[in-house]
Design brief:
By secondary structure, this protein is α/β, with parallel strands linked by helices. The protein has helices at about 5-15, 25-40, 50-70, 85-95, 110-125, 155-165, 190-200, 215-225, 235-245, 255-270, 275-300, and strands at about 20-25, 45-50, 75-80, 100, 130-135, 140, 145, 170, 205, 245-250. Helix content is about 50%, strand content about 15%. The protein starts with a helix and ends in a 6-residue tail after the last helix. The structure holds 1,3-dihydroxyacetonephosphate (13P), glyceraldehyde-3-phosphate and zinc ion (2 copies). This is Class II fructose-1,6-bisphosphate aldolase.
């Protein structure tokens, strides 16, 4: 069933488990996400970035909505990193049940004002809202922040921000970053900061940049002819702990990108005569489903629907 993000995330925060918010860009990714959720009786969030909307538009949103409506587990369709009020309203018009307004690169007061505007409009239509405070390290789609200049979310500011905006859930900067290169060794994730923000707040918290970049996937990627450097992601144990402290929405895109490319590369490499798209995208869908299954197990959302 198609529900709002709040319907899914409030019980997750209360029950101390995380719900995967997976980015989609096509039918196969959407199927891997929603069919796996159905199989595991897990709630799930399917998200589309503005880039995904540019690529797949209403066609893709309709695929998500259709699968969500026919699923018996709760599914939300969420706008990832909405860059403006207009972008959020456009997504709501397309049938999204949850939107993110990401004004985190603006000064605090402007972030509050822009977020408030979105919250007021979205709530009239029964849609829930994610906002962001603090900056992720690494590369965001709208801003490049040097690792050391990136600033993490201040707990007291988070409390003020939530009070002043009425946002339903809040993305916090805790050391994670987008993409396949999250640092060296075991990337830093500030558990004490999550715990402090968790103590001071009651709304669900959101972790961006939460792909695990599993070694087995990068190994297969290379083995099948792909080129990737010292890729590293967030450890499973770190995500488990974060969910104990208040993280309820866990964003994953990179892992599915890698998994689909591994599937496609393996078919093309191992069967050079193959040109049936169902074979080529079929394995990609299977590898992505395994990633989704693993993540749901780690986050503890299995059986919660
Ligand atoms: O935060 C994300 C989408 O908003 C995705 O993060 P990853 O790059 O770690 O998958
Ligand atoms: O956080 C960003 C997501 O990984 C989406 O990336 P994208 O804008 O390239 O679709
Ligand atoms: Zn951002
Ligand atoms: Zn993100």
């Amino acid at each position: 069933m198609l529900v709002t993000g709040k319907d899914i995330l409030v019980p997750a925060r209360a029950g101390k488990y995380g719900v995967g918010a997976f980015n989609t860009n096509n039918m196969e990714i959407t199927q891997a996400i929603i069919h796996t959720a159905e199989k595991l009786r897990s709630p799930v969030i399917v998200q589309m970035s503005e880039g995904a909307i540019k690529y797949g538009g209403q066609d893709l949103a309709n695929i998500v909505k259709d699968l969500a409506t026919r699923a018996t587990v709760p599914v939300a369709l969420h706008l990832d990193h909405g860059s403006s009020y207009e972008s959020c309203l456009k997504a709501i018009k397309m049938g999204f049940t949850s939107v993110m307004i990401d004004a985190s690169h603006h000064p605090f007061e402007e972030n509050v004002a822009e977020t408030r505007r979105v919250v007021e409009a979205a709530h009239i239509m029964g849609i829930s809202v994610e906002a962001e405070l603090g900056r992720l390290g690494g590369i965001e789609e709208h801003i490049v922040v040097d690792e050391k200049d990136a600033f993490l979310t201040d707990p007291e500011e988070a409390v003020q921000f939530i009070e002043q905006t009425g946002t339903d859930y809040l993305a916090i900067a805790i050391g994670t970053s987008h993409g396949a290169y999250k640092g060296k060794g075991r990337p830093y994730i500030d558990q004490a900061r999550i715990a402090r923000i968790g103590e001071l707040t009651t709304i669900p918290l959101v972790a961006h940049g939460s792909s695990g970049v599993p070694a087995e996937i990068t190994r297969r990627f290379r083995e099948a002819g792909g080129e990737i450097g010292d890729a590293v992601g967030i450890a499973d144990d770190d995500l488990r702990e974060a969910c104990q402290h208040g993280i309820a929405k866990v964003n994953v895109d990179t892992d599915l990108r890698l998994a689909s490319t591994v599937g496609i590369r393996e078919v093309l490499k191992n069967t050079p005569k193959e040109f049936d798209p169902r074979k080529i995208f079929g394995l990609a869908r299977e590898v992505m489903s395994q990633i989704v299954e693993h993540k749901m197990g780690v986050l503890g959302s299995v059986g919660k629907a």
